[in-house]
From TrEMBL:
This is Casein kinase substrate phosphoprotein PP28 domain-containing protein. It comes from Cucumis sativus. PANTHER family: 28 KDA HEAT- AND ACID-STABLE PHOSPHOPROTEIN PDGF-ASSOCIATED PROTEIN (PTHR22055). Residues 44-60 have a biased composition (Acidic residues). Pfam families: PP28.
Length: 166
C-alpha cells in the first residue's frame, strides 16, 4: 500500500531466501561476476579435457601461465625494465672492488679536504688561523692590562682606608 504521495522505489525492496530454497539451490539471489566467470572457466576446462582425451592438444596454452588483460595477446619486451640479477653466495667475487658513483666520490673528497683544513687550522698555518691567533693575543693583552689596573686601584683604595684609620 502506498504511503503518502510518493511511490516507493523498487531498489528498496529486499528478497530473502527461505531455507528450503537454499537447500534446493533455487535461490533468487543474483549471480556475481566472479561466480559467472568461475562457471565459464569450468566449462572451458571440461571442453579442454574432452579435447585432450580425443588426442587434440593445444600447444600454445599448455605450458604458459594465463596472463591478465592484453598481456597474453601482445608480447612486448620493455627495454627500460631492469630485471634484478640474483647471485648465489658461491658466485660472489670478494676481491672485486666496486666503483663509487660521482656523488659518493665528491662527498669523500669534500670530507678529506675538510679534515685537511681542520688539521692546518689547529697547527695555525692557515690565514684564518693566523688572524684568530692575533685577535686572541690582543684580547689576552687587553685583559692582562685591565687586571693590572684593577689591582692597582684596589691597592690604592686599601691605602686610603689605612691612612683614614690612622
Amino acid at each position: 500500500m502506498g504511503r503518502g504521495k510518493y511511490k516507493s522505489k523498487p531498489t528498496g525492496r529486499r528478497q530473502f531466501s527461505t531455507p528450503e530454497d537454499m537447500l534446493a539451490g533455487t535461490s533468487t539471489r543474483p549471480r556475481t561476476f566472479k561466480q559467472v566467470e568461475a562457471e565459464h572457466k569450468e566449462e572451458e576446462d571440461s571442453e579442454e579435457g574432452s579435447e585432450q582425451e580425443s588426442g587434440d592438444e593445444s600447444d600454445d596454452q599448455g605450458d604458459k601461465p594465463r596472463r591478465k588483460g592484453t598481456q597474453g595477446i601482445i608480447e612486448i619486451e620493455n627495454p627500460n625494465l631492469v630485471k634484478p640479477k640474483t647471485l648465489k653466495a658461491r658466485d660472489i667475487d670478494i676481491g672485486k672492488t666496486t666503483e663509487l658513483s660521482r656523488r659518493e666520490r665528491e662527498e669523500i673528497e669534500k670530507q678529506k679536504a675538510h679534515e685537511r683544513f681542520m688539521r692546518l687550522q689547529e697547527q695555525g698555518k692557515t690565514e684564518q688561523a693566523r688572524k684568530d691567533l692575533e685577535r686572541l693575543s690582543l684580547i689576552r693583552q687587553q685583559r692582562e692590562e685591565a687586571a693590572k689596573k684593577r689591582e692597582e686601584e684596589k691597592a690604592a683604595r686599601e691605602q686610603k682606608k689605612a691612612e683614614a684609620r690612622k
